[in-house]
Design goal:
By secondary structure, the chain is an alpha+beta fold. 24% of the residues lie in helices and 13% in strands. The chain has a three-stranded antiparallel β-sheet with strand order 2-3-5. The protein is elongated. The relative contact order is 0.17. It binds iron/sulfur cluster (SF4) (2 copies). One iron/sulfur cluster (SF4) binds next to helix 4.
């Protein structure tokens, strides 16, 4: 039984002498290519040129620090539980005396990995976080040659201690607040 009423029977007719030369088909193809030279281009010269993203674009994650530079994440695991792709893994550790400036709470993530090949950039980890410790940013995931390079650990996820190099998440933060009302 036919799966659709729009099926079309294709007849393989014998090619004429001109068709067998392929020259008319090549000229026709070149004509189409040439006509596109003068049309508005839909592509851009990435990475020199970049498209303007939505202010709430969901790109690479960042693990945030507080105003004093301490890591906000308490390794509660809620982001990992919320992640539909099971992309997040972490190992929790207890803060030791003298480490108060490094970690905001008594517990912190000694190891925090996101497998970017699994991640679907849905933002549920960000929504689940009670400590405003993880945000998605407008940064793009760079291409790479090995799978291991796509597992991002704290060395690449955690933002810099330098206050000038902090990643601004204020737009996503306000978006989160508005969408949770
Ligand atoms: S953005 Fe979605 S898929 Fe990616 S780590 Fe967060 S919850 Fe998981
Ligand atoms: S990022 Fe947020 S939700 Fe995930 S473990 Fe850290 S504090 Fe918990």
């Amino acid at each position: 039984m036919a799966l659709t009423t729009r099926s079309k029977v294709v007849v393989q007719k014998k090619m004429s002498f001109w068709e067998q030369l392929y020259i008319p088909a090549i000229l026709k193809g070149m004509g189409i290519t040439f006509s596109h030279l003068f049309k508005r281009k839909v592509t851009i010269k990435y990475p020199e040129q970049k498209r303007v993203f939505s202010p709430i674009y969901r790109g690479l994650h960042v693990l945030k620090r507080d105003q004093e530079g301490a890591e906000c994440c308490t390794a509660c695991g809620l982001c990992a539980v919320a992640c539909p792709a099971e992309a997040i893994t972490m190992v929790a550790a207890e803060r030791q005396p003298g480490e108060e400036t490094l970690y905001r709470e008594e517990k912190y993530a000694a190891k925090y990995d996101i497998n970017m090949l699994r991640c679907i950039f849905c933002g549920l980890c960000e929504e689940a976080c009670p400590k405003e410790a993880i945000y998605l940013t407008d940064r793009l995931l760079p291409a790479n040659y090995t799978r291991a390079e796509f597992v991002w650990g704290k060395d690449r996820l955690l933002e810099s201690c330098d206050s000038d190099k902090r990643i601004d998440v204020s737009v996503r933060h306000s978006y989160q607040k508005e969408s949770s009302i």
